[in-house]
Amino acid sequence: MKAGFCMKTIDDHIEKDKVEIASAKADGNLGKVRHLEEELKALNEYKEHHPEDSHDPSPLEVYCDLNPEAPECRVYDD
To answer: Which residues contact 67 (CB under 8 A, 6 or more apart)?
Structure first.
């Protein structure tokens, strides 16, 4: 995903990744295919965990959903 570019919904992002995966496969860009497939898997997991939420999550939201124990994902109450 390009910096500063935001999808309207998680479904838009998932569809964009699928198209980009097909394009990267056609170009023989296996590194990009691998990256996009990992991103697609994470987006699908996020969607499963939050079926009521259709917004396109940031990479940090996805990471913290999959890794809630990570230091950068901790939330402290004052």
So the answer is: 73
Domain that holds residue 33: 10-73
Decide if 2 is inside a domain: no
Do residues 78 and 70 make contact, with C-beta atoms less than 8 angstroms apart? no
Q: Does residue 63 form part of some domain?
A: yes
pLDDT recorded at residue 14 = 97
Helix (H, G, I), strand (E, B) or coil at 43: helix
In percent, how much of the chain has pLDDT > 70?
91
CA gap 28, 45 in Å, rounded: 27
The first and second tokens of residue 33, run together, are 């295919």
